[in-house]
Write a structure and sequence with these properties.
By secondary structure, the chain is mainly α. It is built from 13 helices and no strands. The chain has one domain.
C-alpha cells in the first residue's frame, strides 16, 4: 500500500521507544494503596478521639445525667456540622426521603442509643473497662460483613483473633466482676457494631457531610423525649467549666470530627479492617484513664496491650 509505505515515521512509535517501557498499569498500580492508607489513618484518628470520650463519660458520670450528656453532645455536634452539611442535606432531601428508613436506623443506632448507653455505663464502670468491652464491636462488624458475602482473608481473621485474645486477657486478668455498667457497655458495643456495618449500605450519592448532618439531626430529635423525662426526674446540671469543656470536647471532636473520619474510613476500607484498627481503643482508653483519672495499669495490662497492637498491625495491613 502506497500510503502505508510512505507513512510519516513521526506518527509511529518504535517498540523500543522509552515511552513504551513505562509500567502499562501506569499510576493505577499504586492507586489502591492511597485510599487504604487514608482509610486506616482516618480509622486511627476516630479511635484515638473516641478514647477520650470514654474518659469524659466516666468523668461526668456523677455531675451530668447520661441522657442530658448525650443530648447536649449532639446539640453541639449539630451546630458544628450544620455549616458544612445542612445545605448539602437540603439538596439531597429527595434521596434522603427515599431512604428514610436507613437514615432513621443509622441515627437511632449511632447517635441516639449508642452514646446514651456509653454515658449510662460511665456512672458505674471504670473508663478502662468501657474501652475493653467496646472491643466487642469489631467482632460484630466482621460477622455482619461475612454474612454479606465479603471474604475476610486469613491474615485479617488472624489479626482479629489475636487482638480479640488480647482484649479478653485484658478484661479477665484483673478479676473484676461484671456490673450493671458493663452490661450497658455490651449493649453499646452491639449498637456501634451494627451502625458500622450498616454504613456499608449507605445510599450511593448521599454526601458524607449531608449524611452526618442528617443523622445528627434525627438522632437529636429522637433524644428529645428522653431529655424531657431526664429534666423532669433528675433536674438539670450546673454549667461549670468542669462540665462545659468536656461537653464541648465530645460535641466537636468525638462527634463531628470522629464520626466523619469513621464514616469515611468505612467507605474506604470496609467495617472489618476499620474494626481491627478499633482494637486500639482499649489500649488508648486504659492509658488515658491511667493518666487523667488515676485508674491503675500494670505490667499484665501492658502485655495485653502489646498483643492487641500486634493483632491490629497484622489485620489492618492485610490486603484481603
Amino acid at each position: 500500500m502506497a500510503t502505508a509505505a510512505h507513512r510519516n515515521p513521526a506518527q509511529s512509535v518504535s517498540p523500543r521507544d522509552p515511552r513504551d517501557r513505562r509500567d502499562p498499569r501506569g499510576t493505577a498500580a499504586t492507586r489502591p494503596t492511597a485510599p487504604v492508607a487514608l482509610g486506616l489513618a482516618l480509622a486511627v484518628l476516630a479511635t484515638l478521639v473516641w478514647s477520650g470520650s470514654f474518659v469524659t463519660s466516666r468523668a461526668l458520670g456523677d455531675s451530668v445525667p447520661p441522657v442530658q450528656h448525650a443530648f447536649w453532645r449532639w446539640v453541639v455536634a449539630l451546630a458544628v456540622v450544620a455549616p458544612f452539611g445542612a445545605r448539602r442535606a437540603w439538596r439531597q432531601r429527595a434521596l434522603i426521603r427515599r431512604h428514610l428508613g436507613f437514615v432513621v436506623l443509622a441515627s437511632l443506632l449511632g447517635v441516639t442509643v449508642y452514646n446514651t448507653l456509653v454515658n449510662q455505663a460511665g456512672v458505674t464502670t471504670p473508663a478502662a473497662n468501657m474501652g475493653m468491652i467496646m472491643a466487642a464491636s469489631p467482632v460484630l462488624m466482621a460477622v455482619y460483613e461475612r454474612a454479606g458475602g465479603v471474604r475476610l482473608g486469613a491474615r485479617r481473621v488472624a489479626g482479629l483473633v489475636i487482638a480479640c485474645a488480647g482484649v479478653l486477657l485484658l478484661v479477665g486478668g484483673d478479676g473484676a466482676s461484671f456490673s450493671a455498667g458493663d452490661l450497658w457497655m455490651i449493649a453499646a458495643a452491639c449498637c456501634f457494631g451494627s451502625y458500622s456495618a450498616l454504613l456499608r449500605r449507605r445510599p450511593e450519592g448521599l454526601d458524607g457531610a449531608g449524611f452526618l448532618f442528617t443523622t445528627f439531626l434525627f438522632g437529636t430529635v429522637l433524644l428529645l423525649p428522653a431529655q424531657g423525662v431526664s429534666l423532669a426526674v433528675q433536674g438539670g446540671f450546673d454549667p461549670t467549666p468542669d462540665t462545659v469543656w468536656p461537653l464541648l470536647y465530645v460535641g466537636v471532636a468525638s462527634s463531628a470530627v470522629a464520626f466523619f473520619a469513621w464514616n469515611k474510613a468505612i467507605s474506604l476500607i470496609g467495617p472489618t479492617r476499620a474494626g481491627v484498627v478499633y482494637y486500639l481503643q482499649p489500649v488508648c482508653v486504659a492509658l488515658l484513664s491511667w493518666a487523667l483519672l488515676a485508674e491503675p495499669t500494670g505490667w499484665a495490662q501492658a502485655g495485653c496491650m502489646a498483643l492487641i497492637l500486634g493483632g491490629v498491625v497484622l489485620g489492618a495491613g492485610a490486603r484481603r
